[in-house]
Amino acid sequence: MKTWNIGNTTVRNPRRLRDALKLFVDKMQGRPFGKVEQQEYLNHMVEAGLVESDRASQGDDGGRKFASAFKQLGFVTDWQRGRAWNLTAVGRLLCDSLSSRTPYFSDNCSTIKCLHH
Q: What is the pLDDT confidence band of residue 111, given thresholds at 50, 70 and 90?
Protein backbone atom coordinates (compact mmCIF):
# COMPACT_ATOMS: atom_id res chain seq x y z
CA MET A 1 0.00 0.00 0.00
CA LYS A 2 1.06 3.54 -0.70
CA THR A 3 -0.41 6.77 0.69
CA TRP A 4 -1.57 9.26 -1.95
CA ASN A 5 -1.35 13.01 -1.31
CA ILE A 6 -4.56 14.77 -2.40
CA GLY A 7 -4.13 18.29 -3.73
CA ASN A 8 -1.07 19.95 -2.26
CA THR A 9 0.32 21.05 1.09
CA THR A 10 -1.34 24.45 0.78
CA VAL A 11 -4.78 22.90 1.33
CA ARG A 12 -3.61 20.58 4.15
CA ASN A 13 -7.13 19.42 5.07
CA PRO A 14 -9.75 18.06 2.64
CA ARG A 15 -12.53 19.62 4.70
CA ARG A 16 -11.30 23.05 3.57
CA LEU A 17 -12.01 22.26 -0.09
CA ARG A 18 -15.77 22.83 -0.10
CA ASP A 19 -15.78 26.33 1.35
CA ALA A 20 -12.76 27.35 -0.70
CA LEU A 21 -14.30 25.98 -3.91
CA LYS A 22 -17.60 27.74 -3.19
CA LEU A 23 -15.71 31.01 -2.70
CA PHE A 24 -13.73 30.35 -5.90
CA VAL A 25 -16.98 29.88 -7.83
CA ASP A 26 -18.69 32.89 -6.23
CA LYS A 27 -15.82 35.32 -6.80
CA MET A 28 -13.88 33.99 -9.80
CA GLN A 29 -16.40 32.08 -11.99
CA GLY A 30 -15.74 32.19 -15.73
CA ARG A 31 -12.72 34.49 -15.49
CA PRO A 32 -9.13 33.91 -16.50
CA PHE A 33 -6.98 33.05 -13.49
CA GLY A 34 -3.74 34.98 -13.99
CA LYS A 35 -1.53 36.63 -11.35
CA VAL A 36 -3.97 39.45 -10.62
CA GLU A 37 -6.89 37.05 -10.13
CA GLN A 38 -4.75 34.66 -8.06
CA GLN A 39 -3.91 37.51 -5.67
CA GLU A 40 -7.56 38.56 -5.60
CA TYR A 41 -8.61 35.01 -4.70
CA LEU A 42 -6.07 34.82 -1.87
CA ASN A 43 -7.39 38.13 -0.52
CA HIS A 44 -10.97 36.80 -0.69
CA MET A 45 -9.91 33.66 1.23
CA VAL A 46 -8.27 35.81 3.92
CA GLU A 47 -11.38 38.02 4.19
CA ALA A 48 -13.58 34.90 4.49
CA GLY A 49 -11.36 33.49 7.26
CA LEU A 50 -10.37 30.41 5.24
CA VAL A 51 -6.64 31.14 5.40
CA GLU A 52 -4.30 33.44 7.28
CA SER A 53 -1.90 35.55 5.26
CA ASP A 54 -0.40 38.99 5.56
CA ARG A 55 0.47 39.09 1.85
CA ALA A 56 -2.24 41.41 0.46
CA SER A 57 0.15 41.91 -2.45
CA GLN A 58 2.74 39.55 -3.90
CA GLY A 59 0.83 36.55 -2.53
CA ASP A 60 -0.56 35.30 -5.83
CA ASP A 61 1.18 31.95 -5.34
CA GLY A 62 -1.04 31.28 -2.31
CA GLY A 63 -4.20 31.72 -4.38
CA ARG A 64 -2.78 29.73 -7.29
CA LYS A 65 -1.61 26.78 -5.17
CA PHE A 66 -4.94 26.51 -3.37
CA ALA A 67 -6.91 26.67 -6.64
CA SER A 68 -4.52 24.19 -8.26
CA ALA A 69 -5.92 21.54 -5.92
CA PHE A 70 -9.35 22.17 -7.49
CA LYS A 71 -7.85 21.61 -10.92
CA GLN A 72 -5.85 18.52 -9.87
CA LEU A 73 -8.93 16.96 -8.28
CA GLY A 74 -11.10 17.65 -11.34
CA PHE A 75 -13.39 20.26 -9.75
CA VAL A 76 -12.54 22.95 -12.35
CA THR A 77 -11.18 23.04 -15.89
CA ASP A 78 -7.67 24.24 -16.73
CA TRP A 79 -7.06 28.00 -16.78
CA GLN A 80 -3.69 27.86 -18.56
CA ARG A 81 -2.78 30.39 -21.25
CA GLY A 82 -5.28 33.01 -20.11
CA ARG A 83 -8.35 30.86 -20.66
CA ALA A 84 -11.35 31.23 -18.38
CA TRP A 85 -11.98 28.18 -16.21
CA ASN A 86 -15.30 26.45 -15.60
CA LEU A 87 -16.75 24.29 -12.87
CA THR A 88 -16.88 20.59 -13.83
CA ALA A 89 -19.69 18.16 -13.06
CA VAL A 90 -17.66 16.84 -10.11
CA GLY A 91 -17.10 20.38 -8.84
CA ARG A 92 -20.82 21.05 -9.16
CA LEU A 93 -21.53 17.96 -7.01
CA LEU A 94 -19.23 19.30 -4.32
CA CYS A 95 -20.86 22.76 -4.42
CA ASP A 96 -24.34 21.21 -4.39
CA SER A 97 -23.37 19.22 -1.32
CA LEU A 98 -22.87 22.57 0.39
CA SER A 99 -26.43 23.68 -0.15
CA SER A 100 -28.05 20.32 0.52
CA ARG A 101 -25.91 19.63 3.60
CA THR A 102 -24.98 16.28 2.10
CA PRO A 103 -21.62 15.23 3.53
CA TYR A 104 -19.00 15.00 0.82
CA PHE A 105 -15.90 14.11 2.80
CA SER A 106 -16.06 11.74 5.73
CA ASP A 107 -14.29 12.44 8.99
CA ASN A 108 -11.50 10.04 8.12
CA CYS A 109 -10.66 10.97 4.53
CA SER A 110 -7.39 12.79 5.08
CA THR A 111 -5.60 10.13 3.04
CA ILE A 112 -6.60 7.64 0.42
CA LYS A 113 -4.68 4.43 0.27
CA CYS A 114 -4.07 2.97 -3.15
CA LEU A 115 -3.21 -0.65 -3.78
CA HIS A 116 -0.36 -1.26 -6.20
CA HIS A 117 0.15 -4.57 -7.97
A: very low
87, pLDDT greater than 50: yes
Span 42-60, pLDDT tens digits: 999 999 999 888 887 888 8
* Cα(111)–Cα(26) distance, integer angstroms: 28
Picking from 12, 17, 38, the residue whose alpha carbon sits closest to that of residue 27 is 38
Q: Yes or no: is domain 2-114 CATH 3.90.320?
A: no
10 Å Cβ neighbour count for 91? 23
Strands 112-114 and 2-4: antiparallel
CA distance 35 to 114: 35
Task: Tell me the H-state helices in the chain.
Answer: 17-28, 35-47, 60-72, 89-100
Phi, psi of 64, rounded to the nearest 5 degrees: -65, -45
The torsion angles phi and psi of 65, rounded to 5 degrees, stand at: -65, -40
- pLDDT higher for 29 or 108? 29
